[in-house]
Amino acid sequence: MKLLQSLYVSVVIALGFVLLGSFASQAYYAGQQRDLLHRKAQAVELRELPPIEEFVGPTSWEPNYRKTLLLPVEEFWNSPAHYVAALVSGLPLALRVATLLMILSLILAILLWPRLCVISKARHSFDSLLVMSVAYLIALSGYVFTWVDYSNLAAKTNSIARFTPFNEGEGNMLIENAISRVSVGILITSFSVLLVCRIMADVVRTFQRWREVQQPAPMYWRSELTGGPMLSRIPASQPRRYRRQSGRR
């Protein structure tokens, strides 16, 4: 029981840090790519837009990973399975790790629930997991929005055969258009950061409540007039105020 509790709390906290890292990495890659593209535009070397991984982060630790195919939105109506498969294959590494931690935390919560639901004091033990799940879904929604919107622009731009690069004015306009689409997805992801920062302390307090509930109940002396055993153990689920009164008796 204690091992499951410790593992559950550790996984939920790790999930929170991974979501924070996912937002930070997206903001970093987007800013870095913006500066790089502007330098190309100033040097009149911009011919096409880069893959989506250059803005949201790589899909694996390998340096030569396979880039995701950029698809316009119309492709979804022609081949939904192919479109969704491309979207999933471009999932950044941080969100992939967050997905695994999310699944693991749900499994641990299911294992802990039958033992905790009978404890009134731990009734809201999984509120932090619920909020963390919402934060994960928001971060995933931010990625989906970025992928769909940017891929649509990049696929249409790169499909046009160009023998000469964009001039500086056209290149800067195209770059700002692309960055604005990516920025909306990052803005959506930022709401998950607010939820994670709000709930991280509650995860630790939940673990402390579990430890308090599982502590052995104190023994107290009973009056001879009441009958029964001279020593009695106060139930752990008994309200704290009544427990103190009983202890004084």
Please describe the topology of this protein.
Elements: H1 2-42, H2 53-56, H3 74-78, H4 80-89, H5 93-116, H6 127-158, H7 168-214, E1 219-221, E2 231-233, H8 240-248
Helix pairs in contact: 1-5, 1-6, 1-7, 5-6, 6-7
Order of helices and strands: HHHHHHHEEH
Distance between the termini: 33 Å
Strand content: under 5%
Categorize the overall geometry: elongated
Strand arrangement in the largest pleated sheet: 1-2
Which structural class matches the secondary elements?
Answer: mainly alpha
Tell me how many strands there are.
2
Number of spatially distinct domains? 2
Q: Which stretches of 5+ consecutive residues score pLDDT under 50?
A: 118-123, 217-226, 230-249
- Report on the biggest sheet: 2 strands, antiparallel
Rg measurement, Å: 27 Å
Counted by DSSP, the helix tally is: 8
Helix content: 55-70%
Instruction: Give the overall pLDDT as a whole number.
Output: 77
